[in-house]
Specification:
about 80% helix; disordered C terminus; mainly alpha; globular
């Protein structure tokens, strides 16, 4: 998927493509959870990886392009903490649900939860849903450059 994205970047409709990729991840997770066929399960695992790759590329690109220069390091650090901890918390949650119910219910519930989050974010953030080409977006304020211009003479 990474090689494909290098030749066909998903940035023409960045917001929509990210939401669709995450929804695809959720749908593939649900099919994987109910599948009893080895090859179908393998195909769904492939798709979860492909959809995840798309969403990561779009998310990180948006974060880098839309964050003002002076804030980019802090925003990246907070993002890394949330992404790292979300994997651990998600693993704990999935394991707890699997222990209390069954592994199939845990996987399917995770896929349904993923799709529910995508739908809620699509409605809660129309700006994200409609985000198009990054070159069409307003430039984020360059706080560092503005500060440098204020201090410099004439």
């Amino acid at each position: 998927m990474a090689l494909m994205l290098a030749h066909m970047p998903p940035m023409k409709h960045a917001g929509r493509n990210m939401l669709l990729a995450v929804a695809g991840f959720g749908a593939a997770t649900i099919v994987f959870g109910v599948s009893k066929n080895f090859w179908l399960s393998m195909a769904m695992l492939f798709l979860t990886g492909a959809f995840d790759n798309i969403s990561v590329v779009v998310r990180h690109t948006l974060m880098q392009m839309l964050t003002p220069d002076a804030m980019r390091g802090r925003v990246s650090a907070v993002s890394a903490i949330f992404i790292g901890s979300s994997n651990e918390i998600g693993g704990f949650e999935s394991g707890t649900v699997a222990k209390l119910t069954t592994p199939v219910i845990s996987v399917v519930a995770g896929g349904i939860g993923t799709i529910a989050v995508v739908v809620s974010m699509a409605f809660a953030s129309p700006r994200l849903r409609k985000l198009g080409m990054l070159s069409d977006q307003e430039e984020p304020p360059n706080v560092a450059a503005e500060t440098a211009n204020v201090d410099s003479p004439g």
